[in-house]
Amino acid sequence: MKIEVKRKDFLETLGQIQHVTERRAHQPILSHVLIKAEGEDITFFATDLEVFVKAKSKCISYGNFEIALPAKELYELIREIESEKISIEILDGKTEIKSKEGKYRLNSISPSQYPLPPEKEWVNITTLPAQTLITLIEKSSFAASQDESRYVLTGVLTEFLSNSIIFVASDGHRLAYFEVPHEVEREGKFVIPKNAILDIKKILVGRQNISVKFSEGTLFLSSEKGDISIWIKVIDEEYPAWREVIPSDKDMICQCVVKREELKKTLKRLSIFAGSKFPFVSVEVRDGKAIWRSESDELGFSEEEIDADVSGKVPFRIALSIRYLQDALSSIDSSLVSMKIFGEMSPLFIEPVGGTGAKNLIMPIKL
Rg of the chain over CA atoms, in angstroms? Predict the structure, then answer.
């Protein structure tokens, strides 16, 4: 029961999935990765019981075995080895790894204890480029909640519509959504746990097309080459009716269009002067300009004025979280952004102008 592998390939495949095992290490088996060697194929499994991941690599010399090894330690060992090739052998219930540097024995857990992903009949939803899926995640997931008391908001809503895909995230104080045009075979709505969303983003980097399937509370993602598969238990709760909180333009008080990069730099400087507990800025919109201010008892006061294309009722002043604003601007790719104001305590609506990016709602702070 011995195989030989290229260290680079082994490390790369293990590195794609080992982070899944770190979340529930209090259950020993879940801190391990299951490795199956069958002929010329070597297959890795990792899970936290919410996400199952399977990744495949190749052997140089063939053999058959199945073993569960501590994922983090195995990854760190292989990363520090410099040999081009390594051998892996099962000896008396232990795993021996040999390289030009030396030999190392790792204790293992019986593979029969390892939980495996569910076997189901899947319904095809769509196939899309991996980078499109990653972009959907990057433009929305930052707004998901960290508060477990409203568990459904810790996830990201994914809507597969006939001609588009929308990802939505909210923590109750802000909301971000991003839509891409794309035809799907079957419509569906799913709330994906945030951990799973982050796993997808890490695992799919550099891949080509990804198929998305569904069955009985589980989403299944797989690469066109079949070298990576991800099973995700979706959150079985109804996501809030997010479209109902999007304000109508007829209720808009004023609109302010500014250069995105200029505002990003302004916020970075003003954040130095904002309070440490809940840093915020105020913006006063006037004809042709937006005046941004921040202050704290500990440090002092700051004010910057930037040019703006302003329409509607002015002057108007509103206060907002600096971090929420910075996150919103980072989710927009256009050179100009539009900020629509609906009232002192109504959500501010931020969207790209003449380009792509997420649309963001941010609840103001009462001054």
Answer: 25
Q: Residues 97, 54: one domain?
A: yes
Same domain, 202 and 235: yes
As a whole number of angstroms, the distance between CA 200 and CA 134 comes to 8
Look up the domain containing 136 and give its range: 123-243
User: Per residue in 185-205, pLDDT tens?
Assistant: 999 999 999 889 989 998 998
| pTM higher than 0.85 | yes
Question: Within this chain, do residues 127 and 228 fall inside the same structural domain, yes or no?
Answer: yes
Tokens 């568990």 -> residue: 151
Considering its fold, how many domains does the chain have in total? Answer: 3
Instruction: Measure Cα distances from 34 to 73, 255, 296, 307, 358 in Å.
Output: 14, 55, 52, 58, 38
Query: Which CATH number is 170's domain given?
Result: 3.10.150.10
Asked if 193 contacts 233 with a C-beta cutoff of 8 angstroms, the reply is yes
64 lies in the same domain as 105? yes
CA 280/CA 273 separation, integer angstroms: 9
- Return all residues near 207 (Cβ < 8 A) that are at least 6 apart: 130, 223, 228
Alpha helix stretches (DSSP H) within 18-106: 71-80
- Return the sign of the alpha-carbon dihedral for residues 225, 226, 232, 234: positive
Straight-line distance from the first to the last Cα atom of the chain, in angstroms, rounded to the nearest whole number: 69
Residue 273 sits in the same domain as residue 358: yes
348-353 vs 289-296, strand pairing mode: unpaired
Going by their DSSP bridges, the two strands 164-170 and 174-181 should be labelled as antiparallel
Residue 118 within a domain: no
147 with 253, same domain? no
What does the pLDDT look like over 42-77, one tens digit per residue? 999 999 999 999 999 988 877 788 999 999 999 999
Q: Is 57 exposed, middle or buried (0-12, 13-18, 19+ CB in 10 A)?
A: buried
- Triad 119, 125, 129: Cα angle to 5°: 105
Q: Which of 92, 113, 134 lies at the terminal end of a domain, its last residue?
A: 113
Q: Which helix (H) or strand (E) holds 256?
A: strand 254-259
Contacts of 109 (CB under 8 A, 6+ apart): 28, 29, 32, 68
Short-list 241, 242, 190, 238, CA closest to 361: 242
